[in-house]
TrEMBL record:
EAL domain: residues covered: 1-254
Full-protein interval shown: 471 to 724 of 726
Lineage: Bacteria, Pseudomonadati, Pseudomonadota, Betaproteobacteria, Rhodocyclales
Listed name of the protein: Diguanylate cyclase DosC
Length: 254
């Protein structure tokens, strides 16, 4: 529980950071957006993964504070980049299931973006299938309110949760993120190739774009581009990087 006490202080002590990972357009190799990924720089433990501290923050009842810090910081960063002429079209930010089910989410998000001077259209919120499925009717309402404000929504880790096709049909989403477990054995695995192709086809027919996660090889990149997957994210392009390193990567890559 020492970690929980530390976590409560982490925000005020400035120990939280965002790392940034690019999303690349498969058609022309251009930068389409960036995903912000939270890190906790703990004084003794070093970099702590969100896999460890997000559940802790949910239990401790401070996930909204952490999540809103991340959104505000991501918004501040995209505004700063655009002012400096760093062309980042969109910033994706992860939402925890708890955050997603706050009835006033859309208003809270809009207030945070306005305070940072970020346009709603620059921001994409990533939700998980299980968060959406926990309260499907609530999810539809929240997504409608976000969409009405021009904020994009992506379904993260698609294919690993319990969403049904009926659900996918009713949720007003913009993006599906194909989970990296379906990408890692491409192109050799015939079953995974079939699943990836089917997801991309389905998404396109529903008017959604697809981000493939965990792209690590040229062969995966070519396969995904061939089946019409719009956007690619993974170590092949860059790992999640601190803001300064991301800027250096971008300057080198383009
Ligand atoms: O980049 P990384 O391996 O650290 O991400 C691990 C997990 O943590 C991923 O599932 C990612 O979605 C989640 N995550 C990263 N940043 C955030 C955040 O700001 N909020 C929430 N809720 N989850 C995050
Ligand atoms: O669940 P979510 O998609 O938000 O989490 C993104 C996670 O995936 C982060 O932990 C990030 O570090 C990790 N990640 C990003 N690209 C790759 C990749 O190419 N390979 C692997 N193994 N992990 C990746
Ligand atoms: Mn994500
Ligand atoms: Na994911």
């Amino acid at each position: 529980l020492a970690l929980e006490t530390d976590l409560r202080r982490a925000v005020v002590r400035g120990q939280l950071e965002l790392f940034y990972q690019p999303q690349i357009r498969s058609a022309d190799g251009r930068l389409a957006g960036v995903e912000a990924l939270l890190r906790w720089r703990h004084p003794e433990r070093g970099l702590v993964s969100p896999i460890e501290f997000i559940p802790l923050a949910e239990e401790a009842g401070i996930i909204t504070e952490l999540g809103e810090w991340a959104l505000a910081e991501a918004a501040r960063q995209i505004v700063a980049w655009r002012r400096q002429g760093v062309a980042v079209p969109r910033m994706a930010v992860n939402l925890s299931p708890r955050q997603f089910h706050a009835a006033d989410l859309a208003d809270r998000v809009e207030r945070i973006l306005a305070a940072a001077g970020a346009a709603n259209e620059w921001i994409e919120l990533e939700i998980t299938e299980s968060a959406a499925m926990a309260h499907p009717e609530g999810a539809v309402q929240v997504l409608r309110r976000l969409r009405a404000r021009g904020i994009h929504v992506a379904m993260d880790d698609f294919g690993t949760g319990h969403s049904s096709l009926a659900m996918l049909r009713t949720l007003p989403l913009n993006v599906l993120k194909l989970d990296r477990s379906f990408v890692q054995h491409l192109p050799e695995s015939e079953t995974d190739a079939a699943v990836a192709s089917a997801v991309v086809t389905l998404a396109r027919r529903l008017g959604l774009s697809v981000v493939a996660e965990g792209v690590e090889t040229e062969a995966q990149k070519h396969f995904l581009a061939d089946i019409g997957c719009d956007l690619l994210q993974g170590f092949l392009f860059a790992r999640p990087l601190p803001a300064g390193e991301f800027e250096a990567w971008l300057a080198r890559a383009y």
